[in-house]
Amino acid sequence: MSGHSKFANIKHKKEKNDAKKGKIFTIIGREIAVAVKEGGPDPNNNSRLRDVIAKAKANNMPNDTIDRGIKKAAGDSNSVNYEYVTYEGYGPNGTAIIVDALTDNKNRTAANVRNAFTKGYGNVGTQGCVSYMFDKKGQIIVSKEECKMDADDLMMMALDAGAEDFSEEDDAFEILTDPNDFSAVREALEAENIVMASAEVTMIPQTYVTLTDEQDIKNIEKTLDLLDEDDDVQEVYHNWDMPDEE
Question: What is the distance between the alpha carbons of residues 195 and 193, in angstroms, rounded to a whole number?
Fold first, then answer.
């Protein structure tokens, strides 16, 4: 992973999320609603719903909250219709930012996203303007602390299940998959009771941008914080080489 500690960022994000449980549960609740609407309420027949449930569990969402979300989505034909929308743009010094949102009002979301970029002195670009700088991959992070399995055994099991790559950091293992193989690999790990710190299909930067100017750093943090606070925003991907959290 070329020295970029995704796990450090995961821990940092989790700490932020712990202070914003309501936000992360809202995000996952919407994903559950969309998954149920598209593929039905039975996770055994709905791989997308299985993936969302795994994400919910990785974020410590209680089982009864997950079940309630599924039942509500299954029983409410008049529930709000959410649409996936993606925005791409630039932060300071050419940093690339991708924003995935799930919204019932595209005009509101577009205005909020534009505002977040503007306040950080960046700008929203056209579709495709930065996504070519990222690779879409299934990514599973396993904390060494919580993994009882030997590293070689874990690697062989992941590769046998269809993973593309396995790498090791100081405190975690990273497993990468083709997005189409993500569910199969995640389920293989789940079957062996491997605890996953994170399991998601994500956008991984091909190269990273280092910011040294203090104002540039404040500006990108402003944009990312505003996006983080927006309930419509599901995920934000960027290629800023964030300093490791201590």
Answer: 6
The rounded Cα 155 to chain-centroid distance in angstroms is: 22
Per-residue pLDDT tens digits for 123-139: 999 999 999 999 999 99
CA distance 139 to 187: 13
Contacts of 143 by beta carbon, 8 Å cutoff, 6+ apart: 7, 171, 172, 195, 197
Query: Regarding beta strands 83-90 and 123-124, do their DSSP bridges make them parallel or antiparallel, or are they unpaired?
Result: antiparallel
User: For the chain, how far is it from start to end, CA to CA, in angstroms?
Assistant: 19
List CB contacts of 94: < 8 A, sequence separation 6 or more: 209
Q: In this structure, are strands 134-143 and 172-177 parallel, antiparallel, or unpaired?
A: antiparallel
- Per-residue pLDDT tens over the stretch 171-181: 899 999 999 99
The two structure tokens encoding residue 32: 């559950």
Q: Which of the 8 DSSP states describes residue 209?
A: B
3-state SS assignment for residue 188: helix
Asked whether 88 and 129 are in contact (CB, 8 A), the reply is yes
Note whether 128 and 88 are within 8 A (CB).
yes
pLDDT-based confidence at 91, cuts 50/70/90? very high
Reduced to 3 states (helix: H, G, I; strand: E, B; else coil), residue 185 is helix
How far apart CA 51 and CA 192 sit, in angstroms, is: 16
Q: What are the backbone angles phi and psi of residue 93, rounded to the nearest 5°?
A: 60, 30
- The span from the CA of 226 to the CA of 114, in Å, is 10
- The reported pTM is 0.83
